[in-house]
Amino acid sequence: MLGKKVINLKQYFLVGLFVSAFFLALNTTTAYAEEQPIAFSHKLHTVQNGIACQYCHLYARRSFSSGVPPVSTCIGCHGPKEQKLVQPDSKEVNKMRTFWSDKEPIPWVKIHDVPDFVRFPHKEHINADSNRLLDDAGAGCDTKNAPRSLECKLAQFRTGGDQRCLACHGDVRQMEVITQVDENFGKMGWCMECHLQVKGAKERKRTGSTIAGWYHAKEMDKKREAAIGLVNEKGYHNPNMLDCYTCHY
Ligand code: HEC
Ligand code: HEC
Ligand code: HEC
Ligand code: HEC
Ligand code: HEC
Q1: Which atom of ligand 3 is nearest to the CA of 164?
Q2: How many whole angstroms separate alpha carbon 190 and alpha carbon 20?
């Protein structure tokens, strides 16, 4: 009996080892990145040199895609071959200058992507009013232990500005190489868990159909809609956050 128990414990230990090895392996595959044509560091540019996200990604608040900056944006600081400015002797910077003189775009590898049948507008997200989220959304964020929890993402989203980018893309300011940090980034559930935090998202459907309700339906709907934040100050309906047509063509 005793001997058997010992073996069992050993087995448990082995299983434990396998389980932790498995999760270690998973951990290294959750964050997704690719080798890029030029060693461009977000950390170096955004933290050390304090360049704002939207200096380079200027379409984020104006259009569907944020886009990556054209080579001319880099040239503005690093200068063309004949007019050398920042880091003129860097091998990596010179790769970029070669693309410029060849009039070629830099073939960056796209990391964050959603399928073509999904409608994702950056514009609406960058310009959304923080007050559209439920009042307690983002409370209880534990930055130290769970920086990618829904609470923390909501807190960052609420702060607005460039912080909002981090809510969805993770702490890009610390990235030498752009990495997708959320394993389920861009999945339907990933979108939905945040959309559910928008005021009125869950309460849209009218419930209760009493006689009085029918009789005063229009008037009561108006009051109810205003109370749960379904209409904006101009009286127009806010988008339905969970409707299939909001995200699918
Ligand atoms: C607003 C100015 C600015 C813009 C725009 C800019 N950079 Fe830089 N970049 C810098 C500065 C400043 C440094 C050097 C920082 C240092 O050495 O501490 C740098 C450093 C670099 C380096 C590292 C050089 C080395 O060998 O250490 C690379 C590579 C680079 N930039 C590429 C690019 C590319 C590609 C773009 C366009 C997408 C770009 N930069 C846009 C200011 C800029
Ligand atoms: C100096 C210009 C510059 C600045 C400033 C900058 N970026 Fe970028 N960004 C780029 C370039 C160039 C790429 C494409 C190369 C790459 O992926 O590293 C890129 C790529 C990205 C991507 C990945 C795109 C993909 O393929 O999925 C994200 C996300 C991103 N940036 C977010 C940010 C955020 C957030 C900030 C501010 C914290 C920021 N960027 C600041 C130039 C910049
Ligand atoms: C609500 C979540 C969310 C926020 C906030 C957000 N992004 Fe994105 N971002 C995405 C998604 C989803 C994609 C993939 C879009 C696609 O493939 O069509 C993406 C793609 C990108 C790309 C790749 C190129 C492109 O446009 O498809 C860049 C660069 C980028 N984002 C930068 C930014 C920057 C900079 C900010 C802040 C100004 C920002 N994002 C804010 C979700 C977000
Ligand atoms: C971190 C929170 C968050 C995430 C993640 C997020 N969204 Fe949103 N989304 C919002 C907010 C907030 C609004 C603006 C709501 C408002 O102002 O009524 C919005 C608005 C939109 C709109 C505009 C609706 C309209 O008709 O004006 C679309 C489309 C959309 N989101 C699609 C997506 C898709 C697709 C994804 C996933 C790839 C996604 N969102 C992920 C928070 C988020
Ligand atoms: C907030 C945005 C959003 C809303 C609302 C939404 N979807 Fe999606 N949906 C997505 C995204 C993003 C994907 C692609 C990623 C994925 O496959 O999970 C997707 C994928 C799908 C797929 C393909 C799944 C697959 O495995 O290929 C189907 C089917 C779908 N959605 C149906 C629906 C239906 C039905 C509704 C309404 C009840 C709906 N969606 C509402 C964002 C949304």
Answers
A1: 5
A2: 26
